[in-house]
Design a protein that fits this description.
Blueprint lengths: L6 E2 L15 H12 L4 E8 L11 E11 L2 E11 L8 H28 L10 E5 L6 E5 L17 H24 L5 H4 L7 H7 L1 H21 L3 H10 L3 H10 L4 E3 L8 E5 L5 E6 L6 E3 L1 H11 L3 H4 L3 H18 L8 H10 L1 H16 L13 H17 L6 H16 L4
Helix pairs in contact: 2-3, 3-9, 3-11, 5-6, 5-8, 6-7, 6-13, 9-12, 9-13, 13-15
Length: 427
């Protein structure tokens, strides 16, 4: 049967969606990748589903697709990620992030899934990618809509509890261990050398992009302002002055240690979806937004997750249990591949603690903005650099206002400093 010319919905679309990049050819490419060559595209329309502030590094929308196979009509929805062209006033940074995610789906994920399949394990829990393009100025990725499989976000303001956190750590362990097995297949060819984009991490961006360096500095200044307003954190306020000049060194340590694994790089509560049992218990997790994937030590992802995505009451008493769950899963994957774990559980804890300084920086960068109200969050649809700077300023103001109204600021943010002082990381 000849391919019908698909009918595009012409109703008004949200201004945040550059619909010119969601074309019939791209929709058709995603459909055929998903449903097979027999699938005939009959109609499609872009339907936005995100709120202001949801997307920091790119635009996310969806496309509803009608198609036929052997005369039978069906529907499917794809999530579409689009290069917005702006992030904190720097086009290069968003282009790097978009390329990293696209290449993860094209290069890394298939190989990791192949390794896992060879040893009788399920695939890594990331969305299926049906179409990706890195054409300059027209970058776009079509992914499966995980809502159809019952996945949804946890409450980012409340943070993750022990059950949610354990699920995430076990999935990170599967990703990390599978990447070690992949690396060991070609021991003379380093993954970071084979895929240079994996080596573009936070230290690289601080070294090469003033926008990134300034954003982190401004986050540190906000943390100082918060601690001054709260009172009783004079040690923290003084300590922040000492670490601002050392930002690059802090993140370089994550990228120079051993063993190196393929890291998610941005593993916090906003980049996770969960599926629940009938009783409401989390049963499965999906890792989203692979825009900061890198080649670092496991402690990079562990510090990122544990110091951005839960209260101190959840994290502090469960650190050893959390790392134990991670280690057991890592060990299971390595042994299924006929290999041994390249570190002990005690060494894992030691490495985690030695990189807690990076964990505190991840918290400083993420938690105040995460806890601010949606209206005060960054709107990535803004095309003007001044608009972005103004929105960031308003977000910081919102964070300060919340000190008196949102008790989670103390349990999520200040608990990090309490822990760092107790550990001696903050003198």
């Amino acid at each position: 049967m000849a391919d019908k010319e698909p009918k595009a919905d012409t109703s008004p679309l949200p201004s945040v969606t550059p619909v010119s990049l969601v074309t019939a050819n791209r929709v058709r490419a995603a459909l055929m990748s998903d449903k097979g060559a027999a699938a005939q595209l009959t109609a499609w329309k872009v339907v936005d589903f995100t709120k202001k502030g949801d997307n920091y590094a790119c635009l996310v929308t969806s496309v509803e697709v009608n198609y036929e196979i052997d005369g039978k009509s069906s529907e499917v929805v794809y999530v579409v990620k689009i290069n917005s062209g702006k992030t904190f006033g720097n086009n290069d940074l968003i282009e790097i992030a978009f390329q990293k995610e696209c290449k993860f789906f094209l290069d890394i994920a298939p190989q990791i899934n192949s390794v896992l399949k060879e040893i009788g394990q399920r695939e890594i829990n990331v969305p299926k990618c049906f179409h990706a393009s890195l054409e300059k100025g027209k970058e776009v990725i079509f992914l499966e809509d995980l809502r159809a499989r019952g996945y949804k976000m946890a409450d980012r303001k409340q943070g993750l509890d022990k059950a949610h956190t354990t699920l995430v750590l076990m999935e990170l362990a599967r990703l990390h261990a599978a990447s070690v097995l992949l690396q060991n297949k070609t021991p003379d060819e380093d993954l970071g050398e084979k895929y240079p984009y994996l080596k573009i991490g936070m230290a690289y961006c601080i070294r090469n992009y003033d926008a990134m360096k300034n954003m982190i500095k401004e986050s540190a200044v906000l943390a100082q302002t918060i601690t001054k307003k709260v009172g009783g954190y004079e040690r923290v306020t003084a300590w922040i002055d000492t670490i601002i000049p050392k930002l690059r060194d802090i993140f370089e340590q994550l990228e120079c240690g051993e063993p190196k694994v393929v890291c998610h790089g941005d593993c916090w509560i906003n980049n996770l979806l969960f599926r629940y049992s009938e009783t409401g218990r989390p049963e499965d997790v999906m890792l989203l937004d692979l825009q900061l994937t890198g080649h670092s030590v496991p402690a990079a992802d562990l510090n990122y997750l544990l110091y951005t995505s839960m209260t101190g009451d959840v994290r502090k008493p469960n650190i050893e249990a959390f790392l134990g769950s991670y280690y057991t899963t890592f060990k299971d994957i390595m042994e299924a591949g006929g290999q041994t774990v390249p570190f002990t559980q005690a060494q894992l804890l030691k490495d985690f603690r030695e990189n807690n300084l990076a964990g505190s920086m991840f918290a400083i960068m993420s938690v105040p903005v995460m806890l601010s109200e949606t209206e005060g969050a960054v709107d990535s649809s803004k095309d003007d650099e001044k608009d972005l700077e103004e929105t960031l300023r308003k977000t910081r103001e919102k964070s300060l206002e919340m000190l008196d109204t949102n008790p989670l600021v103390k349990s999520r943010f200040l608990s990090v400093f309490d822990e760092m002082m107790e550990l001696g990381i903050i003198p």
